[in-house]
Fold:
Amino acid sequence: MSKEMKIDARMIRSLRELRGWSQEQLAEAAGLGLRTVQRVESDGRASAETRTCLAAAFTVPQSVLTGARTVPQRVRDSAGPSLGLVGTFLIAVGLLTGEGPGLLLAGTGILIAMLFVYALEYIDGRREAAGRGELLSPASASVGGLLVAGLSTEALGWVATGGPVWAGLIVAALGLALAAGHWLVSRLIGPESPSEQGES
Structure:
């Protein structure tokens, strides 16, 4: 008899309901018995073979079924915390030095970008749990965050000062440069293979 391991019963139920499947339909799709599916959803225990069959039926990584990589953890692991730290630092330096609105606006723009990256990571986590692909790769989300930070800083700069802000232009240019570099690398060497991307 296989050793049983913990599995997230609520996640199994949510994935099944998301697809509009009954327990019988899930059992058929996974090649399992109805009683096995009922036990997994009620007790939250499954053998390694059952977990593999369920992951294949839902087309999700097994880590989603065990709760090893939840949506909040995915958001915590994103670039968002780093952006929040940088944005807060720039705002603090701007307030302490009193050197004009440039640093304050840049920090605010980066905090807006942090929210953008958090939102993308949350959406991607929900898409992964539903068995769909990512909306953007982590690199694209980070580059998008830089673009959002730069454009937000510029927009805030025009409102606050009536003209362009150097910090916004630099951050937006950095985002564009990274986007162009990412595009160039993917053109030269091709997209990452699934083994290089790593299974979460």
